[in-house]
Amino acid sequence: MFVGFGSSPTSYASPKMIKRTLLLVAACAATAAAQKPSAVSQAKLLWADNAKNVTMAAEDVPESLYSFRATPEVRTFGEIIGHVAGSQSMFCAMVLGEKQPAEDAVEKTAKTKAALVAALKQSTAYCQRAYEISDASAIALVDVFGAQRTKLFALMLNAAHDDEHYGNIVTYMRLNKMVPPTSRPAAK
Known about the structure:
Layout (H helix, E strand, L loop, with lengths): L2 E2 L7 E2 L1 H20 L4 H22 L16 H20 L8 H5 L3 H18 L4 H4 L2 E4 L2 E4 H25 L13
Antiparallel strand pairs: 1-2, 3-4
Helix pairs in contact: 2-5, 2-7, 3-5, 3-7
């Protein structure tokens, strides 16, 4: 038995063909639904780019410029790297429900480029765990500076905070005639 589609006598499809087509459409729809990105995975993409940029800059800037400060009232380059490292650990500890280190702990203790870059990489590795939580877990509330916010909010705040300080880093690099990571030509 054939079922017609359209007015042409040659546009017929068998029930078997219709069944296969419907199964294919259902499989494609299920695959598309399964590939829908989670909210946490989207926050992780943003954070990962920001953390990568901060880390690349921290590695590129010579030790002699870690004491550079744009004006007497602001942090040195090294203090910014320490601040980002400490803040990442603090935000991610909030999400993981673990003891939060003092936000300024790294900034106050690590003084060399090697120590600051190592602390930044360690905090980034620590945060990897926080950005692996499920969307269901991400809606749980945590204390974020005295206000109840979702874990997803804390993850997004971490990503935004890294990006905010990457902006400082870009300025410091430009003032020292350096090209920041995001302004370099793309690798071919």
